[in-house]
Amino acid sequence: MSIINKTATEQLALLQSREITSVALTQAYLDRINQVDPAVGAFLRVESDTALTQAAEVDRKREAGESLGKLAGLPIAIKDILCTQNTPTTCGSKMLENFVPPYNATVVEKLFSADAVILGRTNMDEFAMGSSTENSAYHPTQNPWDTSRIPGGSSGGAAACIAADMAPLSIGTDTGGSIRQPAALCGCVGLKPTYGRVSRYGLIAFASSLDQIGPLARTVEDTALLMEVLAGHDSLDSTSVDTPVPPYSETVHQPLQNLRLGVVEQHFGKGIDPEIEGAVKQAIATYQSLGATIKNLEMPHADYGIATYYIIAPCEASSNLARYDGAHYGYRADQAEVAAELAEDGSDEGPLVRMYRKTRSEGFGSEVQRRIMLGTYALSEGYYDAFYLKALKVRRLIRQDYDNAFEQVDLIIGPVTANPAFVKGEKTSDPMTMYLEDLYTVTANLAGVAGISLPCGLTKNGLPIGLQLQAAAFQEEKLLRAAQMFQHATDFHLRRPELL
Ligand code: GLN
Questions:
Q1: Domain residues for 16?
Q2: By three-state DSSP, how is residue 279 classified?
Q3: How far is CA 292 from the centre of its chain?
Q4: Domain count within the chain
Q5: Which strands, in side-by-side order, build the sheet including 189-192?
Q6: Domain membership flag for residue 314
Q7: Is 335 helix (H, G, I), strand (E, B) or coil?
Q8: Looking at residue 158, which CATH number applies to its domain?
Q9: Residue 347 catalytic?
Q10: 154 CB near ligand 1 (under 6 Å)
Q11: What is the pTM of this model?
């Protein structure tokens, strides 16, 4: 068995007992990336040299008996949306093709202090807008289980690199499902923390009231390990909350007694694939056999989740993305071309305004432009009350549904997606069907609660199926412990795609 088939927790133990070095482990992953990433396309950039230098430094520290962080020597892949000093960060967009941040995101700082080794940056939908990673300005990512299919999105690279054993750990972001949905479609574990649990300082913003950073890994235990490093208050992010971080990696193995699980009727409504419904119901039965009790829940506003999300997220995006105007940083349309255009069409639009316009139409892809238009429209005078304010009110009702639910149960159990991974190109021409991919995930972001996706089966065609558990705010510990109970009783997390 190769070292890369082991879990991060197992690898950490081998590093600590000095049976392997971080350089050897990092090199094994770099070799694997060389071998399979041409077929998968999970990475936008592989940072071999800096990774090996970081790994050698950890090995040196260990040899010298210096104190080491919690992830000492473990390789990790990062979604290309987190600012890293002096390292390009593109957000999957042409707009930031040459952007080199002058500072580190807090989670990147945390990884450095934990002595992790950064392997490279993973592919994503442009500005995290999408559910298939087909909106990346650079290249699509393929699903390692079937390379004719999408890996989910927007953190498609983050999930695919775990599924194809190109990294033991990775970091994604979830605004409406972008950690949980690709984790489900690629058969790995992905956790969307509570809003405020992980600092967003240095995360390139999409929709600031919904965005969260979180871990992806092959097992629940590894997810807990990484979560412990990422979580915590940060004075640089005023929305991060100052509550203690439990030792997730230690408590994850403690089963929960008298676990009460809630099932939402709408989750099994029309449109769900029968194989997914079957696998999720089987998972519910597994929990019952482990002593959990099941309660049917009313969440009357769940049906409005997609409509609400697709007003609020574009509104916030239109405001956040206003900064990309070609004047401050990032892509700028060619001045000579701007002048030539103006001369040709005889417009009295000034060169600066034309430069803004040309920059934004050339630098942003079509989905990002669509969101900006949706958002600006919904925020404009006369429509603001009808769309944005109304959406905020419905968001409050959705939150209320969750509050009521968590008075009766510990966790909500259900599917992550209605369908398994779809074939590339199948939904690109129809944004509405693409938006429906997020049916079961957006409500957690709207309410700010935590959710996890974990493998619970394979379809007849060998495609992964995800199980979603959701918990009240700051109940990640409960979520991880419950997920571990399921993983302990099943072997879905051990199945691997046959890739090369
Ligand atoms: N798929 C959703 C969207 O396109 C969610 C994206 C995300 O969570 N970043 O907005």
A1: 3-255+476-494
A2: helix
A3: 29
A4: 1
A5: 43-46, 117-122, 75-79, 169-174, 212-217, 189-192, 450-458, 464-471, 411-415, 260-264, 293-297
A6: no
A7: helix
A8: 3.90.1300.10
A9: no
A10: yes
A11: 0.97
Q: Is 22 in the pocket of ligand 1 (CB under 6 A)?
A: no
Q: Mean per-residue pLDDT for 267-296?
A: 95
Distance 137 CA to ligand 1 centre (A): 16
In degrees, to the nearest 5, what angle opens at C-alpha 207 toward C-alphas 205 and 208? 70
Q: Which atom of ligand 1 is nearest to the CA of 437?
A: 1
- Expressed in angstroms and rounded, the spacing between residue 21 Cα and the centre of ligand 1 is 38
How many Cβ atoms sit within 10 Å of the Cβ of residue 437? 26
Centroid of ligand 1 to alpha carbon of 212 (angstroms): 11
Q: Where are the beta strands (DSSP E) in 287-410?
A: 293-297
Mutate to test the pocket of ligand 1, among 82, 91, 122, 125 (most ligand atoms within 8 A of CB): 125
Judge whether 154 counts as a catalytic residue.
yes
Q: Which tens digits make up the pLDDT trace of 218-274?
A: 999 999 999 999 999 999 999 999 999 999 999 999 999 999 999 998 899 878 999
Say what angle helices 274-289 and 476-489 make with each other, to 10 degrees: 100
Residue 496: C-alpha distances to residues 76, 299, 455 (Å):
19, 36, 11
Token readout for 450 is 């935590």
Strands 450-458 and 189-192: antiparallel
Residue 165 lies in a domain: yes
Can you tell me the distance from the alpha carbon of 186 to that of 159, in angstroms, rounded to the nearest whole number? 6
Torsion region of 248: left, alpha or beta (phi above 0 gives left; psi -120 to 50 gives alpha)? alpha
Residue 191 placed within a domain: yes
- Is residue 419 included in any domain, yes or no? no
Cβ distance 427 to 327 under 8 Å? no
Nearest to 29 by CA among 44, 8, 14: 8
Q: What angle do CA 359, 363, 366 make, to 5 degrees?
A: 120
Q: Is 208 a catalytic residue?
A: no
Contact 200, 122 (CB under 8 A): no
| Predicted confidence (pLDDT) per residue in 352-399, tens digit | 999 999 999 999 999 999 999 999 999 999 999 999 999 999 999 999
Residue in 438, 439, 440, 445 to alter for ligand 1 test, most ligand atoms within 8 A of Cβ: 438
